[in-house]
């Protein structure tokens, strides 16, 4: 144990039962008439650990205001439309997004589209989706990702299955898709 900084201060040992750093010190005569012992909290350490924990806390925070929920709904809808139905194949009424196109990149394409789809699931959870809804959304993403492992089949499944649009339907979000444009 290190010696105390001054004869009046005596640090308390930290153990598993007392995780808050506290220093006990004798109050000087001029601070208090009785000269009793007082307790003051040690200054908290600021570093990488606290920065990481505050980042994780922000990630796990649900949307609190209606404005933040509305912004999340718009982001999720825009991403789902971009991935699943942003463009119309000329001469047909079939809509296609970036998901099948990105899926053409070997290995990395399916990982990128799965990560974007998981972001939609994450935002759905932050919006207050139930466990059952999150499980259904994860199932849609898993079907899309597992089909993407098979060359050729993944692109056909992306065209037909549209996992992200299904996830929007589970969340009750109706995206604005310009028909024929």
Please name the defining characteristics of this protein.
181 residues, mainly alpha, 2 domains, three-stranded antiparallel β-sheet, two-stranded antiparallel ribbon, 51% helix, 9% strand, globular
Structural class: mainly alpha
Sheet with the most strands, sense and barrel status: 3 strands, antiparallel
Distance between the termini: 73 Å
- Which outline best applies? globular
Strand portion, in percent?
5-15%
Describe the structure.
Helix content is about 50%, strand content about 10%. It is mainly alpha-helical. The chain folds into 2 domains: about 10-45, no CATH class; about 65-170, no CATH class. The protein has a 3-stranded antiparallel β-sheet with strand order 1-2-3, with no helix packed on it. Strands 4-5 form a two-stranded antiparallel sheet. A hairpin with a 6-residue loop joins strand 4 and strand 5. Helix 4 runs antiparallel to helix 5 (about 130-150) and helix 4 runs parallel beside helix 7. The longest helix has 19 residues, at about 65-85.
